[in-house]
Amino acid sequence: MALFRPKICSVCGREYRGLGFQCKDGHFCGDCYDKLLLLIPQDHMFYNTVSKLKKTLEDNEDVLKGQYKKEMPQTCPICGKKLGKLTSMELPDGYICTDCAEKAVDMIPGAGYESVSRIMLSEIRTILSGPEATGTAKGEQGRRYDPDDLRIACPLIRRLKYDADSGANDTFYEDPLAELGPDGIDQVMEKASRIRNERRALYGEYKTVFSVDLIEKPYTTSKTGVHYTGEYLIYGRVLLGRVEKGAVLSVYGRSEERSVRAAGAEGRPSGKDASEGFEAVISVKDDVPFVYPGDVLVCR
Length: 300
Ligand SMILES: [Zn+2]
Ligand SMILES: [Zn+2]
Fold this sequence. Notes:
By secondary structure, the protein is α+β, with helices and mostly antiparallel strands. It is built from eight helices and 19 strands.
């Protein structure tokens, strides 16, 4: 019975009996399967390579350790609501109530319940306690503010996070406002209006000001080669105002009368407007050989 001859798990190196599980370039034992199931969707295991699976387990050692002593608490660690079997969501390192889970799904662009259930409790706590989640908040002097109006002084910070599913680094954004108390918020409010006034003085008649970081010509690859999509993407940050779709932008301080028309403009994280203080990407349909990183694009 060849089937039951002991085999060596390609992932953990231990001997096992039975069928085991097949991945792209090897096979693994039931123990490894159970652990991986906590970290990545089942079908991802089967087309991943042994080295990817090994790395997934290594990178998430803490999660796996936590898993074995994890118990469902009586109440939601975020909002304090009573937790029940049907009103809770299991995370890699804890539990939250379904209301908080729903909020997190709404807050994270593109996220569904499945992806939220793979986020660590501490991260969900940060996401749900930020001013983005609570709508408007108040500074010390009781002034209400919209977090997006303060991005000029306190931009979202782009970070990368290793995603075991795809084996790639995912981009996410941290909100430094989330960590500020009321007096910190007041300071940021003052700083925001100071920076805005300085920029308005500098750029005068221009209502929209955009600083260029990177220009990219997107393409797709197929068997027949590389195919350009016929547009350019201009990445950067909005220094003032908002880049509207259709806006005609020219290079600040350059005498030639050359301009680009924004076929589209989107802020980052995606779903945001290309407005003041946000990273944004402008798409244009024409060649832009006269726009360089470091340029400033302006629009009246
Ligand atoms: Zn194994
Ligand atoms: Zn809750």
